[in-house]
Design goal:
The protein is α+β, with helices and mostly antiparallel strands and 347 residues long. It has 13 helices and 11 strands.
Length: 347
């Protein structure tokens, strides 16, 4: 009976949260990167492109254009488009149509990517686009290991080998044995057996301290999906998973100027995890949780840049936008019902 009552109260709470959303909205998000290695896939060497133009186009079964819109990427290579209502986005795709010359990546390498429905709640929909790429004329040899070997031409080495045979005739000078008596003169310096003296010193000084720096290494990020709610991140036994940012990191540093104006310059991420009651405090709590999850799992629903972009978009929008984004972050942090939290207590 108690479980039924709890489920009923949760359902009522969800209805209250979305009661103000009479207007249906579909949101499209994605990122454009410079594929510096020209390998056609995301890697640590790819950087976001600022100022790239992206087009989202929708066609019907006959191939006729039914909808088209464009957006320019921001400093972090991200773009966000909003469509009023809930149109059928099944035949829609996104592609890069232009990349700024100053980016150094002007060759459009990605085909049009289909939109994927990643979240739907009543009249709210969110579509994501796979990574879009532009490429430079040549791969950056200093960054891409696969391109470094071709630059080295070992065939040039045989030519020096031909030179030594020309030096072979001067083998005549066998007068060189004269310097051989010199080594016997070096033999007497073998007297310094004073070297064993340092050996008695180490036994008196125990050196077990050399292994201590290895313990301070943080756990490696998970390649598989991991989603942990804020309840995990406020516990001290998981403190070793805080990477790149710490509990004392300022909110304004982690999320930028808009967050500094909303929450003040002195609020820390640890304080942000305690937020509840106020919509913007809940948004900060869930955004901070998503940020930590993105640092620790390569397969988390949002990557780090997307968390930053969605947070700033919500802060610059209306109260309804902030509440929507808080719900999106909350759902991702709970794993969507099929992703578990992989954190283990720190040793």
């Amino acid at each position: 009976m108690g479980r039924i009552r709890t489920s009923y109260l949760f359902a009522v709470l969800v209805l209250v949260l979305v009661a103000g959303y009479a207007d249906a909205v579909a949101t499209i998000v994605g990122n454009v990167f410079c594929d510096q290695c020209r390998d056609g896939q995301r890697s640590l060497f790819d950087v976001p492109i600022d100022g790239a133009k992206v087009a989202v186009e929708c066609r019907d079964s006959d191939g006729q254009m039914t909808m088209s819109m464009q957006e320019t990427t921001d400093l972090f290579g991200g773009f966000i488009m909003k469509v009023d209502g809930t149109p059928d986005m099944f035949g829609c795709s996104a592609r890069v149509i232009n990349s700024p010359a100053e980016s150094g990546c002007n060759i459009i390498a990605s085909p049009a990517q289909p939109l994927k429905l990643s979240f739907k709640l009543f009249s709210l929909e969110m579509y994501t686009v796979g990574s879009l790429f532009c490429q430079p004329l040549k791969p950056i040899a200093s960054l891409c290991p696969n391109t470094a070997p071709p630059a080295i031409t070992p065939p040039a080495l045989p030519s020096p080998h031909l030179a030594p045979p020309a030096i072979a005739p001067p083998h005549n000078p066998p007068s060189l044995p004269q310097p051989h008596p010199v080594p016997p003169a070096i033999a007497p310096p073998h007297n310094p057996p004073s070297l064993p003296q340092p050996h008695p010193a180490p036994p008196g000084t125990p050196p077990p301290t050399h292994s201590s720096p290895i313990i301070s290494l943080p756990p490696l990020p998970f390649f598989e999906a991991s989603a942990c709610s804020y309840e995990y991140w406020v516990k001290t036994e998981y403190r070793c998973y805080w990477r790149l940012v710490g509990p004392s990191t300022k909110v304004s540093f982690a999320f930028g100027e808009a967050a500094g104006k909303r929450y003040g310059r002195n609020m820390t991420l640890w304080e942000g995890l305690q937020g509840r009651g106020d919509v913007y405090r809940v948004l900060l709590r869930e955004a901070t949780t998503s940020l930590l999850n993105s640092y620790n799992s390569f397969s988390f629903r949002y990557n780090t840049l997307t968390v930053f972009l969605h947070m700033n978009s919500a802060l610059q929008g209306s109260l309804n936008d902030a509440l929507k984004q808080a719900l999106y972050f909350k759902r991702a942090n709970l794993g969507g019902g099929n992703t578990k939290c992989l954190l283990k207590p720190c040793k």
